[in-house]
Amino acid sequence: MRGKHWACACSLALIVVLPSSLFAGIENRPLNSDEATVLPRGQFVVATGASFVRQPNNDNQWNWVTDLEAGVFDWLELDVELPYTILDRHIETEQPDLNGWGDVAVQLEGSLLKERAYLPGMSMAFQTKTQSANEDRGLGSGETDYTVTALASKT
Question: Which of 7, 86, 131, 136 has the most other CB atoms within 10 Å of its CB?
Answer without folding.
Answer: 86
